[in-house]
Amino acid sequence: MKITQREVQGTVVLDLNGKLTGGPDADTFRKLFDGLIAEGKKQIVVNLEKVSWINSTGLGILIHNYSTVRSAGGDLVVIGASDRIESILYVTKLNLLFKSFENEEDAVRSFTHTRQ
Amino acid sequence: MKITQREVQGTVVLDLNGKLTGGPDADTFRKLFDGLIAEGKKQIVVNLEKVSWINSTGLGILIHNYSTVRSAGGDLVVIGASDRIESILYVTKLNLLFKSFENEEDAVRSFTHTRQ
Amino acid sequence: MVKTNQVEQMTLTIPSDLKYLGAVDAAVQDLARELLFSQDAVNDLGTALIEACSNAIEHGNKFSPDKRVTISLRFQDGTLKAAVKDEGRGFDFEKAMNEDPDPDPTSERGRGILIMRAFTDGLSFSYDGGLVCELTKLRDGSPSPE
Amino acid sequence: MVKTNQVEQMTLTIPSDLKYLGAVDAAVQDLARELLFSQDAVNDLGTALIEACSNAIEHGNKFSPDKRVTISLRFQDGTLKAAVKDEGRGFDFEKAMNEDPDPDPTSERGRGILIMRAFTDGLSFSYDGGLVCELTKLRDGSPSPE
Ligand SMILES: Nc1ncnc2c1ncn2[C@@H]1O[C@H](COP(=O)(O)OP(=O)(O)O)[C@@H](O)[C@H]1O
Ligand SMILES: Nc1ncnc2c1ncn2[C@@H]1O[C@H](COP(=O)(O)OP(=O)(O)O)[C@@H](O)[C@H]1O
User: A74, B71, C14, D93: which could join D125 in a potential S-S bond, CB 3.0 to 4.6 Å?
Assistant: First the structure.
């Protein structure tokens, strides 16, 4: 899995590309989050548009990072989830945990609103 | 493979959907062509946009139908070939046999020009 | 055309490496589409199968490079059965099947069986020199979740 | 990351039915992408492999429902080797490999070997209880045709 980091109006957007499973990728992803928190960046959008699929270990990684961000007083939201991924989030009730937005603007705006 | 037949300015456009291999599909495809020729329809555009791949037996079917149409004084051209299919046509030199157009307009126009 | 009563079987064998899961997913998806399953059913089957293979690689074979996972796909009478077999010691699947999933929404594990169940029409385990996880998907089965 | 000298092998077994070719193509494409082959190389490999499997089903097994085709994919040192084995009687492949392709552009057959050669870095045949057609594709090989 490849991860690209961008910043949009003070919000960090992580573009994921590939498949979200356990293994070595998981560690990279975790360390990236720890780094962001250390820098005080805790409004995070995870872009799943180019993630073809995810397994339950991959969900675990997302949840781990979600918990890290929340403990630091921030939030993690997802965008670009395919129908396939949406239905996994629904079945596991993770749609109740992290918000899923259709597009980047809405996701970034959700943080701006929180700040006001 | 699914085949849908349309008519655009006196030219028959066949939209293929699926994989072009031998087997039962080949017969359907052949009979369709025989029917078209019998009706005097011999300007034919084969749309490969939704054909994910083709094997050499599939090429054989295209060539067979090409020959049928040519013997009847008509022509067969292809549109929408993916990079993958284009390179097969190139390697087998079939790009010298049937013309390949980028879009439907150009393909249909090629027939209109011939008529003038 | 699919003839009734004809058994169609395809088998895949992969190393205990998550990198092969995409190939398994791609193969089962193409096959199920070819067998005229709906796109939703195709996605569901891929999701459940990836889960079963992940468990086989992780819990069954413990990522051992010497152990392999075998996936058999059988289609008959409108039903696709996918059996995933590993070379591990198995587990108390009777117990696991009857347990409620962990109610803690931030728990990082324990959603595999839930997912396999939700996205198929049948899930069963057995042991035969390795754990066998069998998933059943009906072509004209219940609509997929959501 | 792919370690040098590590052999990675995936095996697929399919019935003598063209409907399974899409699954084989999808699987090898996903695997080759995972092994960091370029998209062009991935397409080329799929094209050549479909050709080898078509011949195995058609000429080797003659579409017999009792016979199967086995595809082994092995990756080592930047090279992917795909071996396609059928249960047929084989053919005079020495002769076929040395023959020029039919120069008649409207001939409806005889382009399989040409295609397999053009889209791989190596093609060889052998006989071992069935015909084995082996295709070699280098990750950093020659650019694909066109
Ligand atoms: N193939 C297997 N071999 C051995 N144990 C398994 C296997 N599949 C599942 N298990 C056991 O069942 C438990 C629950 O599995 P699951 O619901 O998929 O959650 P998770 O994989 O996240 O732990 C696993 O933690 C493991 O102990
Ligand atoms: N697996 C095989 N078993 C037996 N004969 C084969 C096999 N593959 C190829 N052949 C023989 O080689 C010939 C040339 O093959 P090919 O170039 O693929 O063209 P085509 O399949 O269109 O005839 C075939 O006609 C067949 O006689």
Answer: D93
Nearest of D131, D137, D1, D140 to residue D57 by alpha carbon:
D131
DSSP B71-109: HTT-EEEEE---HHHHHHHHHTTGGGTS-EESSHHHHHH
Please tell me the distance from the alpha carbon of residue C142 to that of residue C121, in angstroms, as a whole number. Answer: 7
Reading the block at residue D54, the tokens are: 């078509």
Q: Does ligand 1 come within 6 angstroms of the Cβ of C44? A: no
Atom of ligand 2 nearest to the CA of D54: 21
| Backbone φ, ψ for residue D96 (5° rounding) | -60, -35
The residue with tokens 């039903």 is C79
Cα separation, D117 vs D136, in Å, equals 10
State the pairing for strand pair A11-20/A43-54. parallel
D/B Cβ contact: 3+ pairs below 8 Å: yes
| pTM, entire model | 0.93
pLDDT value of residue D30 = 97
**What distance in Å separates the CA atoms of residue B3 and residue B45, rounded to the nearest whole number?**
12
Please indicate whether residue C5 is annotated as part of the active site.
no
CA distances from B80 to B16, B106, B107 (A): 10, 11, 10
**H/E element, A110:** helix A104-115
Q: Are the beta carbons of D27 and C29 separated by less than 8 Å? A: no
Phi, then psi, of A14 in degrees rounded to 5: -105, 115
Beta-carbon contacts of residue C137 (< 8 Å; ≥ 6 apart): C32, C37, C41, C44, C45, C48, C79, C80, C81, C82, C120, C121
* Residues C80/C8, Cβ–Cβ less than 8 Å: no
Q: What would the pLDDT profile of C86-136 be if each residue is shown by its tens digit?
A: 999 999 999 999 988 777 888 888 899 999 999 999 999 999 999 999 999
Task: Round to whole Å and give the CA distance between C75 and C72.
Answer: 10
In which element (H, E) is residue A107 found?
A: helix A104-115
DSSP 8-state class, residue A74:
-
Cα pseudo-dihedral A88, A92, A97, A99, rounded to 10: 20
- Which ipTM did the prediction report? 0.92
Q: Is C109 a catalytic residue?
A: yes
AA letter at C40: D
Structure tokens at C36: 């005229």
